């Protein structure tokens, strides 16, 4: 994965959120990175920030220089920064923890999901090792389906590998009862931290949790399906836009424009359309994806995907994003 690059436009948005009164100048659609950099330096000085990086250097793409600039902003204006949510805090830890940098984005997303379920005495720093004794997965299953786990059948404490396998076999049996697709997955695979198979199992757990949550918000006895989530999104967008998505693998989603239309259908006032790019370059795709995720979080959605997941159109992560927006919209309707 490429290191996180803080662009002048991102710094601009940080400054705008901290001190909107200093932004009496309207940003035109023609602003390039240099114009953003010049504006950022000018406004930073007005706000009392000691500017140690000139505009031209902000545009070079030097990660450490741009992080230094943001550090100066934080030191001067940090009192205006809101406290991170739990999932955002976990994301920051993950992005900048070198030990964890080799793990997949799916591992990160699923681990964050588990850690934010609010299960007492449960926190894992590595998904595969953390799930190897079966206890974490059994606690997650019990959280999603209360009283589904018969704890008399669980080995706890786990003192040897045979007890680990017994717990993991029970995890597989419960998954089958939940109608998971578990062809070729056994308890020994979870105990042995087989990454592909562990991710496959936990994805089905996460999806089960998402669908169950959406079921609780909708009226009717039928289980919410992927197709219904897609139909709901398309219906919401169609009121104001011709954009539609065919599936969670639809490559047209990579520019995030469909998501902006969807988010606007939930709260029209939350998006600054001047900040949205046409999405024709890699940099523009990244800026759009970051902004879409930021807007979803402002609405109160719990988000686990990264901008790269949108740009690469990862269907599992796209599903979680659409479902999170749908959940927020349904919650607003019930208020």
TrEMBL record:
GO terms for biological process: actin filament bundle assembly; actin filament network formation. The keyword Metal-binding applies. Gene3D superfamilies: Calponin-like domain (1.10.418.10). SMART domains: CH. Keywords: Actin-binding, Calcium, Metal-binding, Repeat. One of its GO terms (molecular function) is metal ion binding. One of its GO terms (cellular component) is actin filament bundle. InterPro entries: CH_dom, CH_dom_sf, Fimbrin/Plastin. The keyword Calcium applies. Residues 104-210, 223-330 form the Calponin-homology (CH) domain. This is Fimbrin. It comes from Hirondellea gigas.
């Amino acid at each position: 994965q490429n290191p996180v690059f803080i662009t002048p436009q991102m710094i601009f948005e940080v400054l705008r959120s901290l001190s909107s009164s200093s932004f009496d100048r309207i940003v035109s659609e023609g602003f390039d990175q240099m114009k953003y950099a010049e504006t950022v330096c000018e406004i930073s000085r007005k706000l009392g920030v000691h500017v140690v990086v000139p505009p031209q250097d902000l545009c070079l793409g030097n990660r450490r220089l741009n992080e230094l600039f943001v550090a100066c902003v934080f030191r001067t204006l940090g009192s205006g920064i809101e406290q991170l949510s739990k999932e955002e805090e976990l994301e920051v830890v993950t992005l900048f923890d070198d030990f964890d940098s080799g793990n997949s984005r799916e591992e990160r997303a699923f681990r964050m999901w588990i850690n934010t379920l609010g299960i007492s005495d449960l926190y894992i720093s590595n998904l595969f090792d953390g799930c190897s004794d079966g206890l974490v997965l059994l606690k997650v299953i019990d959280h999603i389906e209360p009283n589904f786990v018969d704890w008399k059948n669980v080995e706890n404490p786990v003192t040897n590998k045979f007890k680990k396998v017994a717990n993991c076999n029970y995890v597989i049996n419960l998954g089958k009862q939940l109608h998971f697709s578990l062809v070729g997955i056994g308890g020994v695979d979870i105990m042995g931290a087989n990454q592909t198979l562990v991710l496959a199992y936990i994805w089905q757990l996460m999806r089960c949790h998402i669908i169950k949550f959406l079921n609780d918000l909708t009226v009717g006895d039928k289980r919410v399906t992927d197709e219904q989530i897609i139909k709901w999104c398309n219906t919401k967008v169609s009121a104001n836009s011709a954009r539609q998505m065919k599936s969670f693998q639809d490559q047209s989603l990579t520019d995030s424009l469909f998501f902006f239309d969807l988010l606007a259908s939930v709260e029209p006032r939350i998006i600054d359309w001047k900040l949205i790019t046409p999405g024709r370059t890699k940099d523009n795709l990244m800026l759009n994806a970051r902004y879409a995720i930021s807007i979803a979080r402002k609405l109160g959605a719990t988000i686990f995907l990264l901008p790269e997941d949108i740009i690469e159109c990862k269907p599992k992560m796209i599903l979680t994003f659409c479902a999170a927006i749908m959940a927020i919209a349904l919650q607003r309707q019930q208020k």
